Amino acid sequence: MEKLSEQILYQVIKNRANDSHKGTYGRVLIIGGTKQFGGAVIMNALAAVNSGAGLVTVATDPINFTAIHSHLPETMVMDFNDDLTHAIQASDVILIGSGLGDRLDIVKHTFSAVFAKQILIVDGSALTLVAEHHLPWPKSRLILTPHQMEWQRLSGVSVEQQSFEAFNILAREKFIQKPIIVLKQFHTQVYTNKGIYELPIGGPYQATGGMGDTLAGIIAGFAAQFLLTPLIDTTLAAVYSHSAIADELAHTQYVTLPTQISAALPRFMKRYAN
Ligand SMILES: NC(=O)C1=CN([C@@H]2O[C@H](COP(=O)(O)OP(=O)(O)OC[C@H]3O[C@@H](n4cnc5c(N)ncnc54)[C@H](OP(=O)(O)O)[C@@H]3O)[C@@H](O)[C@H]2O)[C@@H](O)CC1
Ligand SMILES: Nc1ncnc2c1ncn2[C@@H]1O[C@H](COP(=O)(O)OP(=O)(O)O)[C@@H](O)[C@H]1O
Ligand SMILES: [Mg+2]
C-alpha cells in the first residue's frame, strides 16, 4: 500500500490558462437531498464550487432550492422528480447519492442515462440502495465513496474483515467496471487499477455529519476541473486536500466543520497550483 503525500497536489493542481472559461472547468450535476437531507447536497455543492468546478447544478427536492441559493447563488437547481436525462447527459461529472434517502427510482434512471465516457461518483444512500436492491452498475467511469458500513453492505466484507486489504481487493475484483473505491475511515484507503493508496493524515476532529458529503463534492470538483488528468490522480488529490485542510484547522479547533473545509479550499489550492 502506497502512502499519499502532498506531492499528489503538485501533480494535479495546475494554474489556469488565461483563455479558459467556465466551460473549461467542467459541468457537475449533483443528485440528492430529500426533504430530510437537504444539507447533504448543500455540502456537496459548497465543496464542488469551492474546489473550482466550472458549472454546478443540483437536482434535488424543490423544498431545498431556497436554502441552496442562500448558501450558494453560484449553483443552478432543478427538481429531481423531473426527467433528468438531458441534465445527466449534458454533464461531465455526476455525483449521486448524498442524502438521497429511498429514491431508488432516481438511482435507476441515472444509471440508465449515463454514457460510458462520463464520470459517475456514487455516495451515501445511493450505495445503500444499490446494495439492498442488487442493482447492476452502469458502464460509466465509476468512483464509489463508501464509509465502512456502506462498503460492508455493498461488498459483504464485514467492517472487521476490512482491515485485511486482501478481502477488499477480492471484493473489488467482482466489479466488472473496476471502480475507484474510496473506503473512508481513519486513514482512508483508495483502491484503484494502479494500486492501493493510504491517506496518512486526518483525524477524529472530522467526525461530523456532512464530512463525507463534502469529500464527494471535492472529488466531483477536481474530476470536472482537471478533466485531462488521470481520474485516479484527481481522486487522490481530492482525498488528500480534504484531510490536509482539516489537519490545518485542527491546530486551533476542536472539531473541523465540513463547511469550513469547503470555505478553505480556494486558498489551500492556490498554495499548490503550479
Ligand atoms: N445534513 C445532512 O443532510 C446529512 C445527510 N447525510 C446523508 O444521510 C444518508 C445516510 O448516511 P449515514 O452514513 O448517516 O447512514 P447509514 O448509511 O445508514 O450509516 C449509518 C450506519 O452505519 C454505521 N457507520 C457509519 N459510519 C461508519 C463508519 N465510518 N464505520 C463503520 N460504521 C459506520 C453506523 O454505525 P453507528 O453510528 O450506529 O455506530 C450506522 O449503523 C447519506 O445519504 C448521507 O449522505 C449524512 O451525511 C449526515 C448529514
Ligand atoms: N476518526 C476519523 N479520522 C479521520 N477521518 C474521519 C474520522 N471520522 C470520520 N472521518 C472522515 O469523515 C468522512 C465521513 O464520511 P461519511 O460517514 O460518509 O459522512 P457523511 O455521510 O455524514 O457526510 C470520511 O471522509 C472519513 O474519512
Ligand atoms: Mg456519507
Kindly describe this structure.
Its EC number is 4.2.1.136. This protein has 274 residues and is α/β, with parallel strands linked by helices. The protein has a single domain (2-272), classed as UDP-N-acetylmuramoyl-L-alanine:D-glutamate ligase (3-Layer(aba) Sandwich), CATH 3.40.1190.20. It contains eleven helices and ten strands. The chain has helices at residues 7-12, 38-50, 65-71, 85-89, 104-113, 124-133, 148-155, 165-173, 211-225, 231-250, 258-272, and strands spanning 2-3, 27-31, 55-60, 76-79, 93-96, 119-122, 141-144, 180-183, 189-191, 196-198. The site of magnesium ion has 4 residues, from loops.
List the topology elements.
Elements lengths: L1 E2 L3 H6 L14 E5 L6 H13 L4 E6 L4 H7 L4 E4 L5 H5 L3 E4 L7 H10 L5 E4 L1 H10 L7 E4 L3 H8 L9 H9 L6 E4 L5 E3 L4 E3 L12 H15 L5 H20 L7 H15 L2
Parallel strand pairs: 1-10, 2-3, 2-5, 3-4, 5-6, 6-7, 7-8
Antiparallel strand pairs: 8-9, 9-10
The protein binds ligand NPW, adenosine-5'-diphosphate (ADP) and magnesium ion.
Magnesium ion binds next to loops.
Catalytic activity: (6S)-NADPHX + ADP = AMP + phosphate + NADPH + H(+); (6S)-NADHX + ADP = AMP + phosphate + NADH + H(+)
Cofactor: Mg(2+)
GO molecular function, one term: ATP binding
